[in-house]
Amino acid sequence: MTIYDIAKKAGVSSATISRVLNHGPVKPSTKERVLKIIEKENFFPDSSGVYLKKLKTKKIGLVIPDISNPVYPVTVRIIHDFLKKRGYHLIFGNTYGEVSEEKDVLEMMSRERVAGIIVATCEGEDDTSLYPMFRRMSENMSIIFLGEKRDSLMVDAFTVDSLKGMYKITRYLLNTGKRNIGFIAGSKSLRATEERLQGYQRALKERDVAFNPDNVICEGLYNIDYGKKWGKILLEKGVDAVVCGNDLLAVGVIKAAEKMNIKIPDDVAVTGFDDIFLGSLVKPALTTVRQPVDIVKSGCECLIERIEGRKTGEPEEILFEPEIVIRESA
Amino acid sequence: MTIYDIAKKAGVSSATISRVLNHGPVKPSTKERVLKIIEKENFFPDSSGVYLKKLKTKKIGLVIPDISNPVYPVTVRIIHDFLKKRGYHLIFGNTYGEVSEEKDVLEMMSRERVAGIIVATCEGEDDTSLYPMFRRMSENMSIIFLGEKRDSLMVDAFTVDSLKGMYKITRYLLNTGKRNIGFIAGSKSLRATEERLQGYQRALKERDVAFNPDNVICEGLYNIDYGKKWGKILLEKGVDAVVCGNDLLAVGVIKAAEKMNIKIPDDVAVTGFDDIFLGSLVKPALTTVRQPVDIVKSGCECLIERIEGRKTGEPEEILFEPEIVIRESA
DNA sequence: ATTTATTTTGTAACCGTATACATTAGCATG
DNA sequence: CATGCTAATGTATACGGTTACAAAATAAAT
């Protein structure tokens, strides 16, 4: 079923059908007649044809590390809903922190001629292959970065000030009297890890608490298992608090403490980062750093503005300041 | 940049470029020359053109109620990975249990001419609008249903035998000596709710335990808040166990018990359904019913087989038998 | 060297839609 | 009733690919 078939049934030309389907001027009576036929035949015009003719699609690519990581589903939901309202829809790709996977995904989206891409990964900053790819692609489509700060600002970036976040929560711990505070960042290779470490250090310095490198672990991944592993090590060292680079790590630490019969928060305080839903359900509920939800909406808004040409000019970086959420674990 | 541009640069015709891009026979030397140019220009052929010509896309629609519901992310990940390996990619739509949203999503996928659709929702069985839509669409593309049993079998369905699951876990509770077992199903309108209730009843009957309608709640949604609400009511009635229609409800019940100072599992046992990740982290860890992971892969496999014409014939329903996972809450 | 078979390449049509431009219909005006 | 004007519709082409078919180039066989 094509517009030609509809045209034949309605006794008009394909152009008239197209005009009915879009915004063209059509005599009300024929419009009605055509619409009735379209309805009856359950006809929906083929996007491939539309896209090909217009050289522009309504597809948006979403690049994330792993949808099964509990940080992302909520974000994806917000993005989905926002874009749907604006007439776009999502093509979706997991990258699992692999540069090669991310390349695959970006290539696929390139072929699909997505109107824009939302990148929530942060791989390949030092890699020679991914950044040039972004640069090239950004000439043909709009791209935004979401989440972590980037080294180079080639596209609009909506990032959370994790330095500030870590600073805030470390300061909070210091305020509650903790002095021997451990720190579990994730993998060294991420820029955000460095950021977070700085926030932690700034808070210590401000209170004249000596920085003890033995209390800091910058290795492994941002998941529960590493939280358990590093948590055990730090708890054995006798820290009185553990600041974690994300909530999953913190949950791991809580589990480790549980096994060691260490009471949280009485013996040791534990904090997370991200404020995932899980954190509020775990026992004790997680004290953590929440990134403002607006970051996602602002990002989407900006992306659409770029795509539809209402926003032009140099890429911007917009920094969102996170807030701490105090629950039971600290 | 199009194949014509590439053709010009390579001094050949567009057909040759197309043949290089696909599997056509091309002289090795020209093939190499063309590939070099394609590489240099970072050219990727426009899918719209390809799709339009072939009248078939590499897009798969995924229809789920809500990605931020923790049941789905893992499923989505499995689907994503499977499809990627087979050269397909995902277009994604949340429906929030709304027939109108689901219609929107299906219409969008219709326009996109997706090669197939994976439906993990279960709305509109009794509704007049959604099922006819599926039926029509299934003439042009492959569709599979994932998850719950359906009334009518118009497409392949990969479902979990929730009756059996509920039967098994209720039997387990009876084996541990529980006799006054409450039951929280979700909304009455879902077919699965009925199924689960039957499983619960079958187990009771088998052990000659009288069925007490007062212990059964068939209302509300499958989420934590309703778990808390109904949990409180059942706990106040003095049940010695609560069987829940899914894990979120069970977590809610655990939270309610916590507030009421009721000890789980000593005072009251609680069980869930689905085995989401969260269940293993909550305290006490959830005893629940796990649906086999294979259900998703089998579904995907079947979908691709249908799409690529290797599977034909009448739609099948494949029923997967769930297993119980015993942890701490029962 | 000529014929024949095979490999390689080119030409042109087509997929479904949008739209610039041309045409026709409808209507008011003098 | 011819004229001019606007509204409605039609015609034809382009978008970026693929592919049937034709043609040319090369290799093999006589």
Largest sheet of chain A: 6 strands, parallel
Low-confidence runs of chain A: none
Tally of helical runs of chain A:
12
Major protein interface:
A-B, 46 and 47 residues
The N- and C-terminal alpha carbons of chain A lie at a distance of 63 Å
Question: What shape does the CA trace of chain A take?
Answer: elongated
Give the oligomer, counting copies of the same chain as homo and different chains as hetero.
homodimer
Order of helices and strands of chain A: HHHHEHEHEHEEHEHEHEHEEHEE
CATH superfamily of the largest domain in chain A: Response regulator
Q: Indicate the structural class of chain A.
A: alpha/beta
Number of domains of chain A: 3
CATH topology term of the largest domain in chain A: Rossmann fold
Helicity range of chain A: 40-55%
Our Rg estimate of chain A from Cα atoms comes to: 25 Å
List keywords for this structure.
434 Repressor (Amino-terminal Domain); four-stranded parallel sheet; alpha/beta; homodimer; 330 residues; 3 domains; six-stranded parallel sheet
Please render the helix and strand layout as text.
The structure is a homodimer of 330-residue chains.
Chain A: H1 3-10, H2 14-21, H3 28-41, H4 47-54, E1 59-64, H5 72-85, E2 89-94, H6 99-111, E3 116-119, H7 130-137, E4 142-147, E5 156-160, H8 162-175, E6 181-185, H9 191-206, E7 216-218, H10 224-237, E8 241-244, H11 247-259, E9 269-271, E10 288-290, H12 294-307, E11 317-320, E12 323-325
Chain A binds a DNA duplex (30 and 30 nucleotides) through helix 2 and helix 4.
